[in-house]
What does this fold into?
Amino acid sequence: MVYKTKLQTVRNVFNSLNNNSPDPAYLLLGGDAFLQSFFIEKVSEKISSNNVFNKSVYSLDEDDAEKILLEITGISLFSEPRIIIIRQIKKFRKNHITDIINWIDSSPVSQCIFLILDEFDLKVMIVKELTKYISVVDVRTPFPNKVKEWINFIGKTKGMTLSSEIVEMLLEGCGDSIGKINNELEKLAIFQKSNNRCELDSIISS
It folds into this structure.
């Protein structure tokens, strides 16, 4: 199985999911914890329409690689929606990667595996090997000149159309913290639904 090799943005993948099923696996590169969680959450919603699935989370900082492989390859017998997250994958050896790729190739469409490396380095051996087969997604903290786009994008995922005034206030109050921006948009969404007329600057914390 030879897969996609092009580095994709979170938004590229989400746009693709409007018309396509999720890939069986994603390699997430970058240390933005919110974007990692946000991406996994949105893809998982496509795996299970009622957002009910089994989830297994591993980290090679704490878990033995052989044990992880034994567990994840053993669950391919099950057909229920399942999400598998493996962090700090740099500690996998090349033979481990071969086993994972073989498992992905035969796993049910109701399962998806997310391999995460906080360090963004396309030259690392394991990354170079995985990019031959798995979709690679950039989950680094957005550059400052891209934050406005992200504010509007996250707002759109919540069914919100944001005025330039709100975007500027979020930029001023949250900086480039996408997680904080998301939290403020959650509050705004609640106030919008309740038709609350509070001043914006009392809602968006600085």
Q: What stands out?
A: DSSP finds nine helices and six strands in the chain. The two ends are 49 Å apart (CA to CA). The mean pLDDT is 85. Strands lie at 7-9, 25-29, 54-59, 82-87, 111-117, 135-138.
